[in-house]
Amino acid sequence: MRETVNLGELSGLPIELEGLSIRFGDGLPAVAPSVRRLEEMREVLYNQTARGPDELYYMYRGVFLPEHREMAAAHRVRYDITVIRPGKIGGEYVKTAGHYHPSAPGGEMAYPEVYEVLHGRAHYLLQRPEGDPASIADVIVVDAAPGDKVFIPPGYGHVTINPGEGPLVMTNCVASTFSSEYEQYRITRGAAYYEVESGNRGMFVPNDRYRLKPAPRLVKPVDAPALGLHAGVPLYRCFTSEPERFAFLERPQDFAGLFAGLYG
């Protein structure tokens, strides 16, 4: 029998985790997930020939209660839920493919994003190129637990890693007006570092396809009330109660001063 975990309190939505699937409760329209498969991920893996499960993670995009759907469309914000299975592929923890965001209209600043962990443990591996995409100026690893919110600053590509023993469930809020860019991660065969297990613990192994990659800075999630992100309040409720506070997702150039110093 598959374990069922009630995620309603942390998410602010009537949802449960059943095995590796999200169950939608009364009043919340069900969303069919997009599935990321092993063969789609081979180019970005530490060991590209390793065996593993066929289905690695599940992306439920555009989850909203009916009463919030029109508001979300007006503010051009999308709310998603992602489930990442536990385990390792060739010694590397299961992860997302990794992507960058394009620049927002009206400036050179890229779109940001906000994540929240609902269940399990997450490592968000953020990297900021400088000039050449294979030259990285900064690498951040955010270690996040249930209830933590993680801000992805403009200009940082990111990968989410599941180093835990159980499924990782996370949500995100992002502008609905752009598509993520995956190609650069494919060209460099993944992020600047891979997280692999060694001696029953994780370690970050550098990716030699990058010419410059500083050592990762391990940081904790930070509160950002100026961005409408409040500790103890589900991300979904943060947005639906104050949608105007999330304008930074679509117009980051207007809020640059609020991003500075969040991770030191």
- The CATH H-level superfamily is Jelly Rolls
The level-1 CATH class: Mainly Beta
**Could you say how many structural domains there are in total?**
1
Strand segment tally: 17
Radius of gyration: 18 Å
Helix content: 10-25%
Sheet with the most strands, sense and barrel status: 6 strands, antiparallel
Structural category = mainly beta
Terminal residue distance: 45 Å
Sequence of strands across the biggest β-sheet: 4-5-6-14-9-12
Described by the principal axes of the CA atoms, the overall outline is: globular
Q: Oligomeric status of the shown chains?
A: single chain
Q: What do the pLDDT scores average to? A: 96
SSE arrangement, N to C: EHEEEHEHEEEEEEEEEHEEEHH
Range of strand content = 35-45%
- Going by CATH, the architecture would be Sandwich
Which spans have pLDDT < 50 for at least 5 consecutive residues? Answer: none
Q: In CATH terms, what is the fold-level topology?
A: Jelly Rolls
Written description of the protein model:
The protein is mainly beta and 264 residues long. It has a single domain (4-259), classed as Jelly Rolls (Sandwich). Helices cover 13% and strands 36% of the residues. It has six helices and 17 strands. The chain has helices at 8-11, 38-41, 66-75, 183-187, 235-241, 256-259; strands spanning 4-6, 15-18, 21-24, 34-37, 55-60, 77-84, 88-89, 92-93, 113-119, 122-130, 132-144, 149-152, 157-161, 168-175, 193-198, 201-206, 217-219. The strands form five sheets. A six-stranded antiparallel sheet has the order 4-5-6-14-9-12. The radius of gyration is 18 Å and the shape is globular. It starts with a strand and ends in a 5-residue tail after the last helix. The relative contact order is 0.18. The mean pLDDT is 96.
